[in-house]
Fold:
Amino acid sequence: MVTRYAEKNGAFEGRLDVLRNTDTVMCIGANISRSHMVAGFLFKRNLPKGTHLINIDPEASDLDDLANIALKTNPASDLALIRGLQAIIVQEGLGRSPLTLPNADLLIDQAVSATGVSREQINHSAQMLARSISPAILFGKGITAQGDENLVKELHQLAVLLAQWTANDLVAVHQRRVKQPGRHPAWHGQCF
Structure:
């Protein structure tokens, strides 16, 4: 599923070093503490320095205690949640790239209904992501095992919304802003 999406829209690969500089990590469909301990180490060491963590998992996770926000969603509600996050970001004018969602209120209501998570929690998560300078979205088998290409597409769209990229420029699922001496800041992307 991820491979099919990458074949259609360009490949995307992850680089662990971006986790050293991210200020907000959204982890969805992955228990990073168990499945990728190196990735977990890289961002967890920055949590005491102010890095925010949004952990989205229907089951209890080691990351819940470390997270600023731990969303305990209903199983198989990830797509509705991601669309709800997008809708809030668009509705509040927090997106860094243009996206029109004429049915934003409906998408938010569907996210609340499908996930079992309050609108306030989804809103707080969307604002935390949108207001960060270098957000990272980490996803794992909890996403890919669903076999839904739309799920990866919507994660990709969320990453585009959080960055200043167009879909043609995007090569990854999460991004960081890098300031180079004498040059304008540039967006670089990666995914896991």
Observations:
- Helices lie at 2-9, 32-35, 37-44, 78-91, 104-115, 119-131, 141-144, 149-162.
- The beta strands are 24-28, 52-56, 69-71, 135-139, 174-178, 186-190.
- Confidence is low (pLDDT under 50) at residues 164-192.
